[in-house]
Design brief:
Blueprint lengths: L12 H13 L3 E7 L4 E9 L4 H22 L6 E6 L4 E9 L5 H15 L14 H20 L5 E7 L2 E6 L1
Helix pairs in contact: 1-4, 2-3
Length: 174
């Protein structure tokens, strides 16, 4: 009768912390989604500007080659990555989907740096007035790696979405 009175499952705290940590450590990531169906994380980077289809095709091949090289150097095999772009003019989104089983914090850093190097000031990064210092970020990266390891061992049901909302990070179950 009243759907809002139904008890809903609370999202897994490790998964929630993982999404929140990604958004805290990587200000270029505008949203992150966890899908239990394929045990994947999708990161969205926002870009502001005018781009050609060729710009994105060059970037996607650049990222694919760089990530493949990274995986080879790290000894990772079987990693699954999907890249796509939504929009061309104004604000558009670069989406990266990765499997949780092989994703590392170092790869997230690589993806963020590749986007920043390629798109420069057209990549939207959300820094607040109190950007964390280096020690805090290093501790968060360690924590993020721990959360990734926990996610590999747990079965998290459903879909979680983390978004940046000005100075806040919001994670919700969908």
């Amino acid at each position: 009768m009243f759907d809002f009175l139904k008890k809903t499952k609370k999202p897994n705290p490790d998964a929630t912390r993982l999404l929140a940590s990604i958004l805290v450590v990587f200000p270029a990531v505008q949203s992150v989604t966890y899908e239990s169906k394929g045990e994947t994380l999708e990161f969205s980077f926002a870009l502001n500007g005018k781009f050609s289809k060729n710009d994105f095709e060059n970037f996607l091949s650049y990222v694919a080659e760089s990530v493949e090289t990274f995986h080879h150097l790290e000894g990772l095999s079987g990693a699954k990555i999907e890249l796509n772009v939504e929009g061309v003019y104004g604000t558009c989104f670069l989406n990266v989907r990765r499997d949780v089983a092989t994703l590392t914090c170092r790869e997230l850093t690589l993806l963020t740096e590749l986007a920043a190097n390629y798109f420069g000031d057209k990549l939207i990064e959300e820094y607040d007035d109190f950007f964390p210092d280096e020690d805090y970020l290093m501790a968060q990266e360690d924590y993020l790696e721990q959360c990734l390891n926990n996610m590999r061992q747990l079965r998290v049901e459903g879909r979680l979405v983390g978004v940046r909302e000005r100075e806040r990070v919001v994670v919700y179950s969908r």
